[in-house]
Amino acid sequence: MTRKKIQFIKNWEYNLKKDLKNFNYLPSFIPIEWQILLTNDGSFTRNASIINNSITTIQLCKQNSIYTSRKKIKNFISYHKYQTVNRITERYVWLTQEKEKIGFAYFQYLSNRYKMSYLFHNNQPVGSSLIASETNIHRDLENVYLGYCQELESSFECIGPLWGRSYNIHVETDTLLIIHEIFSSKLPKILIT
Q1: Which InterPro entries match (predicted)?
Q2: Which of 31, 165, 173, 188 has its CA 20 to 30 A from that of 80?
Protein backbone atom coordinates (compact mmCIF):
# COMPACT_ATOMS: atom_id res chain seq x y z
CA MET A 1 0.00 0.00 0.00
CA THR A 2 2.83 2.41 0.71
CA ARG A 3 4.92 1.83 -2.41
CA LYS A 4 2.35 2.05 -5.18
CA LYS A 5 -0.69 4.17 -5.81
CA ILE A 6 -4.01 2.51 -4.99
CA GLN A 7 -6.39 1.80 -7.83
CA PHE A 8 -9.81 3.05 -6.73
CA ILE A 9 -12.37 2.50 -9.47
CA LYS A 10 -15.32 4.90 -9.30
CA ASN A 11 -18.58 3.36 -10.46
CA TRP A 12 -20.65 6.43 -9.60
CA GLU A 13 -19.83 10.05 -8.72
CA TYR A 14 -21.98 13.00 -7.74
CA ASN A 15 -20.47 16.45 -8.28
CA LEU A 16 -21.96 18.74 -5.64
CA LYS A 17 -20.52 21.87 -7.27
CA LYS A 18 -22.42 21.33 -10.51
CA ASP A 19 -25.66 20.54 -8.76
CA LEU A 20 -25.79 23.00 -5.83
CA LYS A 21 -29.56 23.39 -6.00
CA ASN A 22 -29.93 19.65 -5.31
CA PHE A 23 -27.30 19.43 -2.56
CA ASN A 24 -29.96 18.68 0.05
CA TYR A 25 -31.51 16.03 -2.18
CA LEU A 26 -28.89 13.39 -2.80
CA PRO A 27 -29.98 10.39 -4.86
CA SER A 28 -32.34 8.21 -2.85
CA PHE A 29 -30.27 5.06 -3.38
CA ILE A 30 -27.65 6.45 -0.98
CA PRO A 31 -28.53 5.04 2.47
CA ILE A 32 -29.33 7.79 4.99
CA GLU A 33 -26.42 6.84 7.28
CA TRP A 34 -24.03 7.31 4.34
CA GLN A 35 -25.63 10.63 3.37
CA ILE A 36 -24.98 11.87 6.91
CA LEU A 37 -21.38 10.61 6.96
CA LEU A 38 -20.50 11.88 3.49
CA THR A 39 -22.04 15.35 3.68
CA ASN A 40 -21.44 16.22 7.33
CA ASP A 41 -19.67 19.57 7.56
CA GLY A 42 -17.77 18.74 10.75
CA SER A 43 -14.52 16.84 11.18
CA PHE A 44 -15.16 13.16 10.42
CA THR A 45 -12.47 12.03 12.87
CA ARG A 46 -13.87 14.22 15.64
CA ASN A 47 -17.44 13.04 15.03
CA ALA A 48 -16.36 9.38 14.90
CA SER A 49 -14.46 9.82 18.17
CA ILE A 50 -17.51 11.33 19.89
CA ILE A 51 -19.95 8.70 18.58
CA ASN A 52 -17.74 5.77 19.66
CA ASN A 53 -16.14 7.38 22.70
CA SER A 54 -12.87 6.24 21.14
CA ILE A 55 -10.00 8.33 19.80
CA THR A 56 -9.54 8.29 16.03
CA THR A 57 -5.86 8.16 15.10
CA ILE A 58 -3.95 7.86 11.88
CA GLN A 59 -1.42 5.38 10.65
CA LEU A 60 0.95 7.10 8.24
CA CYS A 61 1.51 5.17 5.00
CA LYS A 62 3.47 7.69 2.98
CA GLN A 63 4.36 11.37 2.99
CA ASN A 64 6.44 13.32 0.53
CA SER A 65 7.00 16.90 -0.57
CA ILE A 66 7.04 18.02 -4.16
CA TYR A 67 8.78 21.32 -4.79
CA THR A 68 7.40 23.25 -7.70
CA SER A 69 8.66 26.20 -9.66
CA ARG A 70 5.95 28.47 -8.34
CA LYS A 71 3.17 26.41 -9.91
CA LYS A 72 -0.06 28.27 -10.47
CA ILE A 73 -3.22 26.38 -9.64
CA LYS A 74 -6.81 27.45 -9.95
CA ASN A 75 -8.11 28.82 -6.67
CA PHE A 76 -11.22 26.84 -5.75
CA ILE A 77 -13.00 29.69 -3.96
CA SER A 78 -12.45 32.42 -6.53
CA TYR A 79 -12.59 30.57 -9.83
CA HIS A 80 -11.26 33.56 -11.73
CA LYS A 81 -8.12 33.74 -9.54
CA TYR A 82 -5.03 31.59 -9.33
CA GLN A 83 -2.82 30.99 -6.34
CA THR A 84 0.90 30.34 -6.48
CA VAL A 85 2.20 27.20 -4.81
CA ASN A 86 5.86 26.62 -3.95
CA ARG A 87 5.54 23.16 -2.46
CA ILE A 88 2.90 20.45 -2.33
CA THR A 89 3.03 17.91 0.50
CA GLU A 90 1.20 14.65 -0.19
CA ARG A 91 0.14 12.36 2.60
CA TYR A 92 -1.53 8.94 2.64
CA VAL A 93 -2.97 7.71 5.95
CA TRP A 94 -5.22 5.09 7.47
CA LEU A 95 -7.92 6.40 9.83
CA THR A 96 -8.12 3.96 12.74
CA GLN A 97 -10.11 3.40 15.91
CA GLU A 98 -8.81 0.87 18.41
CA LYS A 99 -6.50 -0.54 15.70
CA GLU A 100 -9.38 -1.12 13.26
CA LYS A 101 -9.06 0.66 9.90
CA ILE A 102 -12.21 2.70 9.28
CA GLY A 103 -11.02 4.89 6.41
CA PHE A 104 -8.22 5.79 4.05
CA ALA A 105 -7.32 9.40 3.28
CA TYR A 106 -5.05 11.08 0.77
CA PHE A 107 -4.43 14.79 0.98
CA GLN A 108 -2.35 17.49 -0.59
CA TYR A 109 -1.18 20.43 1.49
CA LEU A 110 -0.58 23.38 -0.83
CA SER A 111 2.23 25.31 0.80
CA ASN A 112 2.06 28.99 0.11
CA ARG A 113 2.04 31.66 2.77
CA TYR A 114 0.62 29.56 5.60
CA LYS A 115 3.11 27.65 7.71
CA MET A 116 1.10 24.83 9.18
CA SER A 117 3.59 22.14 10.13
CA TYR A 118 1.25 21.16 12.98
CA LEU A 119 -0.90 19.43 10.34
CA PHE A 120 1.70 16.68 10.10
CA HIS A 121 1.80 15.20 13.60
CA ASN A 122 2.33 11.52 12.83
CA ASN A 123 -0.62 10.15 14.80
CA GLN A 124 -3.10 13.03 14.73
CA PRO A 125 -5.71 13.49 11.98
CA VAL A 126 -5.71 16.79 10.07
CA GLY A 127 -9.19 17.69 11.34
CA SER A 128 -8.07 17.28 14.95
CA SER A 129 -4.98 19.42 14.28
CA LEU A 130 -7.08 22.20 12.73
CA ILE A 131 -9.57 22.13 15.62
CA ALA A 132 -6.76 22.27 18.19
CA SER A 133 -5.08 25.19 16.38
CA GLU A 134 -8.36 27.15 16.23
CA THR A 135 -7.53 28.09 12.64
CA ASN A 136 -10.48 29.75 10.92
CA ILE A 137 -11.20 27.53 7.91
CA HIS A 138 -13.90 26.91 5.33
CA ARG A 139 -14.59 23.40 4.02
CA ASP A 140 -15.94 22.99 0.51
CA LEU A 141 -17.37 19.55 -0.31
CA GLU A 142 -16.80 18.74 -4.00
CA ASN A 143 -17.83 15.14 -4.73
CA VAL A 144 -19.23 12.00 -3.19
CA TYR A 145 -18.60 8.69 -4.93
CA LEU A 146 -18.97 4.93 -4.84
CA GLY A 147 -16.44 2.43 -6.10
CA TYR A 148 -14.19 -0.54 -5.57
CA CYS A 149 -10.56 -1.13 -4.65
CA GLN A 150 -9.20 -4.61 -3.90
CA GLU A 151 -6.30 -3.24 -1.83
CA LEU A 152 -8.58 -1.15 0.40
CA GLU A 153 -11.21 -3.86 0.72
CA SER A 154 -8.49 -6.30 1.84
CA SER A 155 -7.14 -3.83 4.40
CA PHE A 156 -10.65 -3.00 5.67
CA GLU A 157 -11.42 -6.73 5.81
CA CYS A 158 -14.69 -6.20 3.98
CA ILE A 159 -16.01 -6.28 0.46
CA GLY A 160 -17.14 -3.19 -1.40
CA PRO A 161 -18.64 -1.09 -2.63
CA LEU A 162 -16.79 1.70 -0.82
CA TRP A 163 -18.10 5.24 -0.35
CA GLY A 164 -15.81 8.25 -0.55
CA ARG A 165 -15.74 12.01 -0.78
CA SER A 166 -13.45 14.81 -1.88
CA TYR A 167 -13.30 18.30 -0.43
CA ASN A 168 -11.11 21.37 -0.12
CA ILE A 169 -10.17 23.29 3.00
CA HIS A 170 -9.57 27.01 2.64
CA VAL A 171 -7.90 29.62 4.84
CA GLU A 172 -9.02 33.10 3.95
CA THR A 173 -9.27 32.90 0.12
CA ASP A 174 -6.55 30.31 -0.51
CA THR A 175 -7.00 26.58 -0.87
CA LEU A 176 -4.89 24.97 1.84
CA LEU A 177 -5.78 21.29 1.56
CA ILE A 178 -7.31 18.98 -1.01
CA ILE A 179 -8.61 15.87 0.75
CA HIS A 180 -9.93 12.55 -0.57
CA GLU A 181 -11.40 10.05 1.91
CA ILE A 182 -12.60 6.49 1.27
CA PHE A 183 -14.45 4.68 4.04
CA SER A 184 -14.82 1.06 5.08
CA SER A 185 -18.19 -0.39 4.05
CA LYS A 186 -18.50 -1.53 7.70
CA LEU A 187 -18.33 2.06 8.93
CA PRO A 188 -22.01 2.69 9.79
CA LYS A 189 -22.07 -0.51 11.88
CA ILE A 190 -18.75 0.39 13.56
CA LEU A 191 -20.01 3.86 14.51
CA ILE A 192 -23.37 2.65 15.82
CA THR A 193 -22.14 -0.30 17.93
Answers
A1: Chorismate_lyase_/UTRA_dom_sf, Rv2949c-like
A2: 165
